[in-house]
Amino acid sequence: MLRSILLGKYRVLVFAVAAFFLVNVGVFTLNFVLLQHVERDAASINEGGKLRGYSQQLAKALLTLSHESLAGDPVQTSQAQISEAYQAFDEALAQVQAFAAAAEDHSVLEQAEKLDRQWQPLRDAAIALLGEAVPAPDAIESAVILSNTRNVRLLQLADDLTEEQERIAADRAHWMRTLQSGAIGAALLMFVFIVLHVARRLFRSDRAAEQSRREMTDILRTVREGLFLIDRNGLVGMQRSDHLAKVIPQPLAAGDNFLVTLAALVSPDTMDSARQYIELLLNERVKPALLADLNPLQRVELNRQGSARPKYLNFSFQPVRGDAGEGITGLLVAVADVSQEVRLEHELASAEERARSEVALLLQVLDNDPDDVDRFLGDARAKLDRLNTTLRDVRPDSREYAAVVTGVFRDVHSIKGEAAALSIGTVTAQTHRFEEALTGLRNRRTLTGDDLIPVATGIGHLLQELSRVEAVISRIAAFARQPADAGGGAIHAGTPAAEDGVFQSMQRIQRLALAVASDLNKKVRVETSLPHVGVIPEPVHRLLREGLPQLVRNAVVHGIEASDERRRAGKHEEGRLRIELVRSADGSLELTVADDGRGIDVHALRSRLVESGHRTAEQVAAMSDRDVVATLFEPGVSTATTVDEHAGRGVGLDVVGTLARETGARLRLASSPSEYTRFTLQWSPA
Description:
Blueprint: H1 2-7, H2 11-71, H3 76-103, H4 106-130, H5 137-222, E1 226-231, E2 236-240, H6 244-247, H7 258-263, H8 268-281, E3 300-301, E4 312-321, E5 328-337, H9 339-366, H10 370-393, H11 398-421, H12 425-442, H13 453-474, H14 499-519, E6 524-529, H15 538-546, H16 548-559, H17 563-568, E7 575-583, E8 589-595, H18 602-611, H19 617-622, H20 625-630, H21 652-663, E9 666-672, E10 676-683
Parallel strand pairs: 6-7
Antiparallel strand pairs: 1-2, 1-5, 3-4, 4-5, 7-8, 8-10, 9-10
């Protein structure tokens, strides 16, 4: 870069500025040297002028010493004055000689040497007078005579010395002023040249910049996508395409932080990924081609900005490099609105999904006994109609609203279990979505009437899904072995079910258990024991349809461990789930669902009750283990830490407990940590 500046189009300007700088440095240096000479000359002249005074001071001190000696007065004061005078003269003369030697002023040195030769005899006489406490009168008289004879000459030589110093100082100052004036003149000429050269360059540059600006404006006004630059700190540049304001709903002005604006448009997870992606793009060691498929802002859905229809934008980034060696200075961002394209793709995918769903639904229905499907549809529709009636008649009270939500959750979960047992996946998926909405309502402390609107909507969607199943059934001629009535053909309460129906129910339960285990990457062996049980009452049949799927799902999800966990515990990697329905000699029926899994961890359940807010720490501490385990049958209590399609809602055992009460069954739960869990339901003989 430095080489291009020195040898490029700016070389004349660079050399001119360098010369101007050097001249100015020379002028400043000259001024500094001149100032030193002026200071030195002034000090030298000052010291030379002092010689006259010190010579006269010495002569006066000698006369005073003579008078005091003749009068017999003390002479110490006079001697001190003599000592001070000759020492001051020596120091001043030495300073003059030093200044002259430094400036190489030979004429001044000659004058100083003459003055020194004239001074030495008088100096020696003065020093001799100081060697004795009371000088001899003859010595004093000789010193006074020597002072009188030499003092006039000393004064004349001191005057000559001063005049010579002043002459040399004046000559030096004149020469330096001339040199300084020339340097200043050269600096002014260079400055004028630089100004004219820069003005001409600026005029040309402005004309080229204006042409470039017009062309850039035409391009940015014409392009049909949002274009702008951001620097390494994410700040938006000055140039932006006009179409940008139509694409991005948030204002994006020059100097704004692009990442801050983007954070208001996309989800936090997408924002985190986008920030990391941009950091990778700015990394010199990472090739942009390798990151193309990692862009998290391709067809990203924006947060709703008051519009009912979602908006999708496609952001693409291209690293911008500066001059040679400067590296990546920022990113060129291109934004395009792809909402229409995405909507068309979604519509096509939705149509394909509906077609696949219809085929899957057809196959699912054909895999089941028509009577079982007919009974399920009738029971599910009856439950949903009852829930609609409950919603319509509910009293305007927050506690009543909460009770309604709990009841809806329980019935929807029951429908979900039956649909899963029958492998009717579309109904299972719809109930799972409904449960997600109900979970949000159940977690609220207070509910209003408006909060029940999503409940009514969810019931409507579930009824529509049931209608789809009924429509498929009506189109299957082979399914019409036993015509269904207009109400869905539900079996009336108390109608006996044949034993082959029980076997079919157990087969569905086995398929459900294996499907759930497959989703969770677990291995399960399902064992069923169905000795001759004869005619089964409808209440028991109802629990087999609605409650048994909940118990089986609960056993696979919560009880059976993963294969590696079972191996560490010394168990066979394949879990065992046993379902047994027996009739005792007294005519009572007993249903047992047992697994050899991890059992119920009462300590963990206590912590879960406190964490979920179902009990306070004080309440849990006061509860027995039996009471803690009994909370599993309460709405919302679950040992699962996450929510998915199979667990975490805290409704499955609530459904079982409710069915046990409604069908008159006695429910028992036995469990041993790391060994087993067993649910038993017993019905007394009719």
